[in-house]
What we know:
CATH 2.40.50.1020, five-stranded parallel sheet, phosphorelay response regulator activity, LytR-like, CheY-like_superfamily, phosphoprotein, DNA binding
Amino acid sequence: xxxxxxxxxxxxxxxxxxxxxxxxxxxxxxxxxxxxxxxxxxxxxxxxxxxxxxxxxxxxxxxxxxxxxxxxxxxxxxxxxxxxxxxxxxxxxxxxxxxxxxxxxxxxxxxxxxxxxxxxxxxxxxxxxxxxxxxxxxxxxxxxxxxxxxxxxxxxxxxxxxxxxxxxxxxxxxxxxxxxxxxxxxxxxxxxxxxxxxxxxxxxxxxxxxxxxxxxxxxxxxxxxxxxxxxxxxxxxxxxx
Length: 241
């Protein structure tokens, strides 16, 4: 799953960028979370949480803290985030070089959408991004599921419930044991946080108070006996990405 931030003080451009990026990712069957910010100050207020983003679309001409200054601050946290400048001007190439910007997208151009698609093609190629799919014979249907879209798997009433993000979170079921499924999903970075829950590490936002908080803000309980191992695995995973 890709995590993307869009920072622009013009609402119209924030929404246009989000619309075109979502269209592109939908055609590629890539799951994503997109957050929007109306100023560099608001974005930088995230602090180290900026590290959770793969891509940041950044308007250059913003009040108080402009996009160039914001990009320099982002680089203090990470050199791995892909920064894409969005601007009405073309005279920032030297500054873009200093912060290793991936692209400049010019506002108010007829082919703005095509520029975004080309930009995303370039970024995914650099990331060597691969969509992993796995085939399941659910009770409801048989389908290939993008592994990144599985939030968690719950054992309930002798069945497994797969909570999968589509247009909304949908539940599919099959008959199997969670022990068997844990072994099957281990290579995809899933972790057993509870006797009844197998969770995709990619969708854990935080761990606190003997609970994991998922990216959709759902809370799942972690028993005290498992808490230390779950937290260690989460920290190790965050270190990898």
